[in-house]
Amino acid sequence: MKRSILCLGAFALITVGAGRTYAGVLYSQPSDNIGFFYSQNDTGGATTPANGTTYDNFTLGTTSTVRNVSWVGGFLPTIVNNTITSFTLTFYSDNSGAPGTALTTNTISGNANQSFVGRDALQDYVYSYSANLPTPFVATSGTHYWLSVVANLNAGGTFQWGWENSGGASDPGDGVGYQSLLGAMPTPITSDSAFTLSDVAAVPEPSTLVMASALFGIFGGVLTYKRRQRNALAA
Questions:
Q1: Burial class for 200, CB neighbours closer than 10 Å (0-12, 13-18, 19+)
Q2: CA 225 to CA 219: how far, in whole Å?
Q3: Closest C-alpha to 161, from 114, 200, 199
Q4: 3-state helix vs strand vs coil in the chain, percent to 5
Q5: Whole-model pTM above 0.90?
Q6: Are 110 and 177 within one domain?
Q7: How confident is the model at residue 58, as a pLDDT?
Q8: Does residue 156 share a domain with residue 235?
Q9: How would residue 50 be classed by pLDDT, with cut points 50, 70 and 90?
Q10: Residue 222: which domain range?
């Protein structure tokens, strides 16, 4: 019986981890695991800061409010344990098939629930990210919009972080994006970027630590009950 309880606890600890549950997906472009385009704001005060912005477009079938954005990005394989202090997510109008006027900008403090996914085909370190928007974005049905995702970090004058590409049969995008580097005007790139838009804010799930505490509490309660039974019989 004890072994069954312990095995059940171990199984629960393995299968239930820290994470977030998503609902109400409005639009989704999965990562193709091939690589990324630089999209970062170098906050380190370098003489020539390595700044870049990558943009991708989307169109929704119904008028909806975007309350959560999740995305996939990564670091170059030569970069280890770099700290993102915040993200800037901006929605733009469309200007003849290119990013136009900024409509809504959200600053996400911290690293947006950064979670290691693995390494892509170029050996970049890949992570998933997610954030509820402090200022939700209302997207009108059939209207073309653009989104940029920029990591703010002390990059020391080097490009380090990028927004992972999306592609393949499961990608609903048009295979066209834009990128601006070192303050230059945005230019076309032949790639979509990996992101998901949802109209429901993400709800935190119990963390592994909380689950472990609960399980050990239950197991401790069983042992205490059996000890009390044994002491009562001895008396």
A1: middle
A2: 10
A3: 114
A4: 15, 50, 35
A5: no
A6: yes
A7: 98
A8: no
A9: very high
A10: 1-18+207-235
